[in-house]
Amino acid sequence: xxxxxxxxxxxxxxxxxxxxxxxxxxxxxxxxxxxxxxxxxxxxxxxxxxxxxxxxxxxxxxxxxxxxxxxxxxxxxxxxxxxxxxxxxxxxxxxxxxxxxxxxxxxxxxxxxxxxxxxxxxxxxxxxxxxxxxxxxxxxxxxxxxx
Length: 147
Hints:
five-stranded antiparallel beta sheet
């Protein structure tokens, strides 16, 4: 994956490009529905790296997925080049919400959209929700506001 696209009219300031691999598909060469979450996860890790955010979360605020909703618009197939766009749509007290849009590069069609709520916890074993650290909230806001 690379990060070539520029901001778009829907407010997505970050995107990565990827190509559908055979491992992403079913026997018919169509992306298996469960593998869309992997595409989103790869984009999220690239987004965090770009923003200088620890990929698993800052100390004392480890990231866990609380909610993921995907809206499939049309099938992606083996060999398709896709752009996965991502933005932080909201920062709450202990969580942040990430929005995604997957576009087919060749046609411009929206393949899928998604929304994910990520909660910070103190630890992975029995951790409790923790406040979003001020530096993390500031970094997300600065990037999304174009500063």
